[in-house]
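TICKET: design request
STATUS: open
ATTACHED STRUCTURE:
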């Protein structure tokens, strides 16, 4: 009963985290269905929690950092790790995965979406569980944390609160580079566990174009990014905010070019024989 009360308090205390979590569950089910969504969430949350638990004791894989326990009694903790922190990894990883898929999936012509002509992406099983997708997702996952972690470290200046610290602050606005390596490690491990399961699950029943469903995940990625940049500027860290904005603009430009460029030819990188029965 005590844990249930703390969980409900956590939702009230961190509503923005659970709004993003709910958005993740909704958009993921639209694309990959509930069977894959709950597995993706459980694997990524479990991996993130184990890595956070280990890092606060051994410095691996994020480097040394510590939760100060300032919100114990106000929100749910599992051991020394705030529950809301480890669940954030799940929706951020899925959002990064959608961006990577939009950049790497083969193209099968164009489709109409609202007032735009979008390139139609083929949701090929081999392509979506490939090593390039895994590596690019891990990079994009760490890349968004380069905006999130610096502002989270200044949580005492906004409604997050000062919940953790680095004993040896790094050069990137106080965040050690090892932290971003740790994020990439969590992304790689999570997808390395998830992809073999994805390949064994029953085939998906997909719409004519998966591009709109993927864009929901992309919207989640840039929604989280916009939220954190807004907080960064709100607390008066203009240089930090501009740095984060300029870092992500090239990726956004590349993404728009690949999706909207009408001259892009259908991809022949993957044979139709490699498409999982029922998947496109």
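STATUS: resolved
RESOLUTION: sequence designed for all positions
ATTACHED SEQUENCE:
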């Amino acid at each position: 009963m005590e844990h249930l009360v703390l969980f409900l308090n956590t939702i009230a205390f961190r509503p923005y985290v659970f709004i993003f979590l709910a958005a993740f569950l909704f958009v993921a089910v639209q694309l990959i269905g509930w069977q894959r969504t709950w597995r993706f969430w459980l694997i990524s949350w479990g991996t993130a929690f184990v890595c956070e638990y280990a890092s606060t004791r051994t410095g691996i894989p994020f480097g040394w950092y510590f939760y100060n326990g300032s919100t114990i009694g106000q929100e749910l903790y599992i051991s020394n790790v705030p529950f809301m922190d480890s669940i954030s990894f799940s929706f951020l990883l899925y959002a990064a995965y959608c961006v990577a898929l939009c950049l790497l999936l083969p193209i099968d012509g164009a489709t109409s979406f609202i007032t735009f002509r979008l390139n139609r992406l083929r949701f090929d099983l081999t392509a979506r569980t490939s090593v390039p997708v895994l590596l690019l997702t891990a990079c994009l996952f760490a890349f968004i944390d380069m905006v999130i972690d610096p502002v989270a470290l200044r949580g005492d200046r906004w409604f997050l609160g000062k919940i953790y610290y680095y004993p040896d602050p790094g050069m990137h606005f106080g965040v050690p580079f090892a932290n971003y390596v740790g994020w990439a490690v969590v992304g790689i491990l999570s997808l390395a566990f998830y992809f073999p399961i994805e390949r064994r699950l029953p085939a998906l029943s997909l719409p004519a174009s998966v591009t709109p469903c993927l864009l929901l995940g992309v919207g989640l990625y840039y929604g989280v990014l916009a939220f954190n940049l807004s907080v960064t500027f709100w607390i008066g860290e203009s240089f930090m905010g501009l740095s984060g904005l300029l870092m992500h603009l090239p990726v956004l430009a590349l993404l728009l070019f690949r999706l909207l460029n009408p001259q892009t030819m259908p991809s022949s990188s993957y044979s139709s024989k490699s498409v999982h029965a029922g998947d496109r």
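CLOSING REMARK: The radius of gyration is 19 Å. The first strand starts at residue 66 and ends at 67.
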